[in-house]
C-alpha cells in the first residue's frame, strides 16, 4: 500500500513541476512515467482517466495547499496592512507557486465542462473568495474606499503575483521590502481618500 500512495504522490508532484514549466500540452504521461520510474500502465492504474485525471489531482492538491497558506496569511493578527503583507510575502518568498497557479488556470480549457467547473469552483472557493471577503470587510469598515470587493481582491492578487521568489540570492529583508512595496502601492491606490 505505501508504494501505491508513493507512486500517486510522486506522479502528481512530477506532473505539477512539468505543468508549471511547460503547460498542459507540454506534459506527457510517457515523461511522467519515466520520471517516476513506473510503466505508463501503472499511471493509468492510479489515474484511470489518464492525463486529465492526473491534472485534476494536481489542481485539487495545489488548491488545497494554497488555500491553507492563504488562510494562514489572512489569520495574521493585526491590521489590514499586516494581513496583506503576510499574503504578499507568501508570494515573495515562493510559498505560493504563481507559475503553477497560472498553468492550472490556462489548462482548464483542455478539460471537459464538468472538470472545468470542478477546478474553477474549488479555486474560487479556496483562493479568491477569502481575499474577496477580506476586501468586503475592509470596505465595510472604511479601511478601503467604496469599490467592488472582487475587483479589489483580484487587483491585489495580481500585484502580489508579480513579486516572485528571489533570484541570485536576494536577502530575505529585500524580499520583504518587495512585499511591503506591493501592499503600499495597493493601499495608496485603494485606500480612503483623506483629502
Radius of gyration: 19 Å
Low-confidence stretches: none
**CATH architecture verdict:** Orthogonal Bundle
Main structural class:
mainly alpha
- The amount of helix comes to over 70%
Q: Give the total of beta strands.
A: 0
State the assembly state of the protein chains.
single chain
Arithmetic mean of pLDDT: 89
What kind of sheet is the major sheet? none
Count of the domains:
1
Write down the CATH class. Answer: Mainly Alpha
CATH topology: Tetracycline Repressor, domain 2
Number of helices: 9
CATH superfamily: Tetracycline Repressor, domain 2
Order of helices and strands: HHHHHHHHH
Give the termini distance in whole angstroms.
65 Å
Shape: elongated
Layout of secondary structure:
Layout (H helix, E strand, L loop, with lengths): L1 H21 L6 H8 L3 H7 L4 H24 L5 H13 L5 H10 L5 H28 L8 H13 L10 H19 L5
Helix pairs in contact: 1-2, 1-4, 1-6, 4-5, 4-7, 5-8, 5-9, 7-8, 8-9
Keywords: DNA-binding
InterPro entries: Homeodomain-like_sf, HTH-type_TetR-like_transc_reg, HTH_TetR, Tet_transcr_reg_TetR-rel_C_sf
Protein name: TetR/AcrR family transcriptional regulator
Amino acid at each position: 500500500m505505501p508504494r501505491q500512495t508513493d507512486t500517486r504522490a510522486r506522479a502528481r508532484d512530477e506532473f505539477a513541476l512539468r505543468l508549471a514549466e511547460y503547460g498542459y500540452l507540454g506534459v506527457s504521461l510517457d515523461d511522467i512515467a519515466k520520471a517516476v520510474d513506473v510503466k505508463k500502465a501503472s499511471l493509468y492504474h492510479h489515474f484511470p482517466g489518464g492525463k486529465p485525471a492526473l491534472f485534476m489531482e494536481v489542481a485539487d492538491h495545489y488548491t488545497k495547499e494554497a488555500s491553507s497558506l492563504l488562510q494562514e496569511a489572512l489569520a495574521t493578527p493585526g491590521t489590514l496592512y499586516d494581513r496583506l503583507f503576510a499574503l504578499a510575502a507568501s508570494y515573495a518568498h515562493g510559498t505560493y507557486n504563481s507559475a503553477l497557479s497560472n498553468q492550472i488556470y490556462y489548462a482548464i480549457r483542455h478539460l471537459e465542462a464538468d472538470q472545468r467547473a470542478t477546478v474553477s469552483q474549488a479555486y474560487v472557493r479556496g483562493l479568491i473568495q477569502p481575499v474577496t471577503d477580506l476586501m468586503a470587510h475592509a470596505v465595510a469598515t472604511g479601511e478601503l474606499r467604496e469599490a467592488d470587493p472582487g475587483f479589489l481582491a483580484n487587483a491585489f492578487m495580481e500585484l502580489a503575483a508579480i513579486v516572485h521568489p528571489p533570484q541570485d540570492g536576494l536577502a530575505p529583508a529585500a524580499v520583504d521590502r518587495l512585499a511591503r512595496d506591493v501592499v503600499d502601492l495597493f493601499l495608496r491606490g485603494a485606500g480612503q481618500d483623506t483629502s
